[in-house]
From TrEMBL:
PROSITE patterns: CNMP_BINDING_3. Gene3D superfamilies: Jelly Rolls. SUPFAM superfamilies: cAMP-binding domain-like. InterPro entries: cNMP-bd_dom, cNMP-bd_dom_sf, RmlC-like_jellyroll. Residues 18-117 form the Cyclic nucleotide-binding domain. This is Crp/Fnr family transcriptional regulator.
C-alpha cells in the first residue's frame, strides 16, 4: 500500500491546525501498516509506542476478562485509534483493538512524534485538544450507559452512528449496548 496521506492531512488541517511546514514534515514520517481481518492491533497490559491513524477499514476497541469481552468503541472513519492515555503518559493500556475488516494504518513512532511536536511548538495544543475530546466522549458514553435503556442507545446509534450499524456485525453492536444479540434483534424488530 502506498503512503496516502490525503485523509490524515485533511484530519490535521481540520482538527489540529499545524503550520504547513510542520505538517509536511510530520506526514513524511508516517509509515503504512496493514492488518488482515480479525487481527489483534492492541493488547491489554502493553504500552502504546506508536501513534496510529486509521486510513481504511474498521476496528473494534474492547475490554476483556476471562468471562467476556465488552466493546467500547468502533472506528470506521479516518481518525486516530491510539489509546492516547497510554501513549501520552507512558503507561500500559487496559484496552484491546481488533481489525473487523482488512485495515490500513498510518503509524509514527512515539519519540519521532514528540520531536516534531516540540520542534514546531504545537505539542501542548495537540495534547490538550486530544484529551479534551477523549474526556468529553468518555463522559457522554458513561452517562448514556447509566441513564438510557438499550433501546434508546440503539436509537442514538441509528441517528449518530448509522455507519456502525451497516458495517459492524450485530453481535458486536449487542456487546457495545451491553445486551444479548437476541435482545438486540427484538429491539430492531420493534423499531422498524
Amino acid at each position: 500500500m502506498n503512503l496516502d496521506t490525503t485523509k490524515i492531512s485533511s484530519f490535521f488541517e481540520t482538527e489540529y491546525p499545524l503550520n504547513k511546514e510542520g505538517l509536511k514534515e510530520l506526514l513524511g514520517l508516517f509509515s503504512v501498516v496493514e492488518y488482515k481481518k480479525n487481527t489483534q492491533i492492541l493488547t491489554s497490559d502493553t504500552e502504546e509506542h506508536q501513534l496510529r491513524f486509521l486510513n481504511k477499514g474498521a476496528v473494534r476497541e474492547y475490554y476483556a476478562s476471562t468471562e467476556k469481552e465488552t466493546n467500547i468503541n468502533f472506528y470506521t472513519k479516518p481518525q486516530f485509534i491510539t489509546d492516547l492515555s497510554s501513549f501520552m503518559n507512558d503507561t500500559k493500556t487496559k484496552k484491546y483493538q481488533e481489525s473487523l475488516t482488512p485495515v490500513g494504518l498510518l503509524v509514527i513512532d512515539k519519540e519521532l512524534f514528540r520531536t516534531i511536536l516540540a520542534k514546531y511548538d504545537c505539542g501542548k495544543s495537540f495534547i490538550d485538544l486530544s484529551f479534551q475530546k477523549l474526556l468529553k466522549q468518555k463522559e457522554l458514553f458513561e452517562y448514556n450507559r447509566v441513564t438510557k435503556s438499550p433501546e434508546e442507545l440503539y436509537q442514538e446509534l441509528l441517528i449518530y452512528k448509522p455507519n456502525w450499524l451497516q458495517s459492524i456485525p450485530q453481535y458486536h453492536i449487542a456487546s457495545y449496548l451491553n445486551i444479548t444479540p437476541e435482545t438486540l434483534s427484538r429491539i430492531r424488530k420493534r423499531i422498524s
